[in-house]
Structure formats: structure tokens, C-alpha cells
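So, who can interpret the following?
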Amino acid sequence: MHKKENNSIILATIKHLIVAIMFIILIAVIIFVLFGSRISMAISLINKVSIDTSNVVLKDVKLNSITKRLESYPEYGTKYGDLSIDSLDVDLPLYYGDTLSILRNGVGHSSGSYFPGEGGTIVCMAHNTIGYLYNLSDIEIGANIVITTTYGKFTYKVEETKIVPETQVDAVSVSHGEEMLILYTCYPTNTFGHATKRFITYSKLVDAQYN
């Protein structure tokens, strides 16, 4: 008799556990459907997208010693153009600066690098989630990346891609003499938790049209 009662209790407990697990899964699905984009953004903000360029040594010359080609510069945190990659169906606003608040809005442009048209390295980055650069790792060598600014349109052709640790700061070294665009994001894309790698594209200027 006691054995039957024990079996009944065990079966009832298992049934309750199954119902509880199914209920938790249902709640999780509902939360993901309703707040999936916000959760994705929160994960992106946890990840440190930028490889720190504050201490990057500029090769050849110092930035402050360069005679600037542009007549005026955007204020930090403001949108001054758009970045598009037709092959990936990417079209994002481009902002001067790379703080987390700026990266919520689109592509950030590191203040430690040059501007399009100045003949030096341009360093840009964005989150790796849907609506940003989630598919950057699908880019092919030879693809065009276009930056359209308030003063001109600049086309860069991808020459190389790399996957590097987030600590490899020399992967985004800045130099003057040849205009290159370095564009990167966290890797792999849409990861839960902190992404420890970066997917980087290196592109050479192939066309410049000034307004």
C-alpha cells in the first residue's frame, strides 16, 4: 500500500515538474517575442564593441601635425553621414564618436582616426545584432563599402578580413599616407554574453566624389 502511495506521489511530482517546465518555456517564448529586440540590444551593450583606440600609436606622423583637408568637422556625437554595404543590405547612419550611447544609433567613428577624404585610416564599428552589422562576417573580398558624408561620397573595396581577440589593439592601427577603412563588430554575431572576438574588414579607397 505504501509503495503504491509513494509511486503516486512520485508520478504527481513529475507531472507538476513537467507542467512547471512547460510554463517557464512558454513565458520565455512570450518574453522573447515581445522584448527580443531590447534583450538583443542589452546583450550588445554588455559587449565592449570597440577595441580601445585611445592609446593607438599613429604610424608615420601624429594626427595633430596633419594639415586637415576638411573645412569643418562634425561635433562629437553627431551624425555626419551614412555607411552602406549593398551586398549585405546594410544602410546605417554614421556618427562621430564610439561611446555606447552613440552605438545605439548606428555606426560609430573612432575619434582617434581620420575622416573620409583625409588620406589616412578611418576606424568605424557597430553592434553585431540585427539592425546593425549582424551579417558583416558574410562580406566577400572585393565588396564595396560606401560612406556618404555631408561633403562627399567615398567608396572603399574590401581587401582583407580577420577574426581577432578583442585585446588585439594593433589590428586597428591608424596611419597616414593611404586611405583605408577599418570596419568591425563583435564576433560571433548575436552571441549571448560577452563576445571576446572581433570580425574586422580592411578596405581601400577606390573612388572619392566631393560635393
Confidence is low (pLDDT under 50) at residues 55-67. The radius of gyration is 23 Å. The first helix runs from residue 2 to 46.
